[in-house]
Amino acid sequence: MEPSGRQGGNSDYLSAPFVAVPCDLLRRFAQLGLHPHELVVLLQILASGQTEGTTELSPHELGERCGMSSKEVMACVERLVTEGFLAIGERYDDQGAHVTYFDLQPLWDKLKGRRRMVQPPPAEKDLVSLFEEEFGRPLSSLECDQLRAWLGEHGYPEWLVVEALKESVLANKYSFRYIDRVLYNWQKNNVRSRQDLEQYRAQYRERQAQWRGEPQAGQSKPRSRPASPRTAAREPVRDERYASFYELFPD
Where are the residues of the annotated region Disordered (predicted)? Predict the structure, then answer.
């Protein structure tokens, strides 16, 4: 069976190298904060790495492929590096010459973080929603990573993280750093269960009351003792006949 005219016409095109581009990058580049011309620069670097096996492109080469001048493309590269989408690596080639290359790993890290923020795992989804409701805004990818670190790397139970969130709301401190300090302080004081937490809070309130000089629960303020008859007898008795004298010479 002979190939159709359309297939025959496309044969040269289909035999040319192709570039694999993550669909997430094409769909979400604007949400990531990328401009269209910056996306073109990243795609040209990606294409060079996949089809030529190297990302060692000079400003002139990269600019020519992107339809930009060397000055324009380097200004674009500078912003991509500053915003954390691109890195510039250094190495020595086989002849010992110092060469630089473009590294797209920061871009892949951004994509992974964005995917986690948009679609959090089911176990964390309710916790993320709770934080967003209390903070009154969506969580960033870094904040979602911090949540995962508390639950995974640090091993805090979910209920304890929720209690730390409540502490921050009561203190009007809508900050992940503040919540992290609360969790660290509880861990340092061996708070491992709800009972431990209630006991720790009770002890904390007691210390605060002592510091302010307030009586503890179940205690009343000490009453002043009345003067004993002997003490009262020693107090001087004023003779009202000498009132004028007392006014002139008190004590």
Answer: 207-239
CA 101 to chain centre: 31
Q: Which of 45, 109, 99 is nearest to 77 (CA)?
A: 45
Q: Are 133 and 115 in contact (CB under 8 A)?
A: no
Q: For residue 96, what is the DSSP state?
A: S
Pairing of strands 87-92, 98-103: antiparallel
By the 8 A CB rule, do 19 and 44 touch?
no
Residue range of the domain that includes 197:
120-211
The per-residue pLDDT for range 199-213, each reduced to its tens digit, is 888 887 887 777 766
Asked if residue 218 is part of any domain, the answer here is no
Q: Token digits for 203?
A: 């002890």
Using pLDDT thresholds of 50, 70 and 90, give the confidence band for residue 113: confident
User: Amino acid identity, residue 212?
Assistant: R
User: In 33-69, where does DSSP find H-type helix?
Assistant: 36-51, 59-66
Q: Is residue 219 part of a domain?
A: no
Overall pTM > 0.85: no
